[in-house]
Amino acid sequence: MKKVIIINGPNLNLLGKREPAIYGSLTFNEFLEKVKQKYSKVDIDYFQSNIEGELIDKIQEVGFSYDGIVLNAAAYTHTSIGIGDAVKAIETPVVEVHISNTFNREEFRHQSYISPNAKGVILGFGLQSYELAIQSFL
Ligand code: DQA
Q1: Which end of the chain, C or N, has fewer beta carbons within 10 A?
Q2: Distance CA 136, CA 106 (A)
Q3: Which CATH code fits 2-136?
Q4: How far is residue 48's CA from residue 135's CA, in Å, rounded to a whole number?
C-alpha cells in the first residue's frame, strides 16, 4: 500500500472557520475522512503545525520512507527558506498544494520557496487541490 502524508502549515487548523469565502466551510477533518474513504487503497497520514521547525522535522522524518508528501506550507510557502531546503533535502516527492489561487491574490503570495523543489504544484481548486495531489501519486 502506498504511503502518503498531507502536511498542513499555519492557520490551516482553522479551516471551516477561517475566511470561508476563500477557504470554504468544511473543516479539514471532515474533508480528510471523505478522502480516506475514497482512496482506501492509499495509506493517508495527516500532520498540521503552526510552527515552522515542526514542519521541517516532519518533512525530514517522512522524507526517506513515504511514497509522497502533499504539502500546503500556507504562509511559510512565501517566507521559509528552511522548508524549501527541507523539501530539497529529502527523497520523497513533494506536491505543493494551495486551496486558493495564490496568483490572483496579493503579490507577496506569488513567491514560493517550495515550488523550485517540488515535483509539481496544484493550486486554486479549493480542497480538491489535495485530492488531485493524492491522485498524482497513484
Ligand atoms: C494557502 C495560501 C497562502 O498564501 C496562505 O498564507 C494560506 C493558505 C492556500 O492554501 O490557499 O494560509 O496556502
Answers
A1: N
A2: 28
A3: 3.40.50.9100
A4: 21
Distance of alpha carbon 66 from alpha carbon 92, whole angstroms: 6
Question: What single-letter DSSP state applies at residue 29?
Answer: H
Cα 12 to Cα 22: distance, rounded to the nearest angstrom: 12
pLDDT in tens, 114-128: 999 999 999 999 999
The amino acid present at 59, given as its one-letter code, is I
Q: CB under 8 Å to 54, separation ≥6 — which residues?
A: none
**Would the pTM of this model clear 0.90, i.e. be above it?**
yes
Rounded Cα–Cα distance for residues 130 and 40 (Å): 15
Ligand 1 atom index nearest CA of 11 = 12
Cβ–Cβ < 8 Å for 32, 46: yes
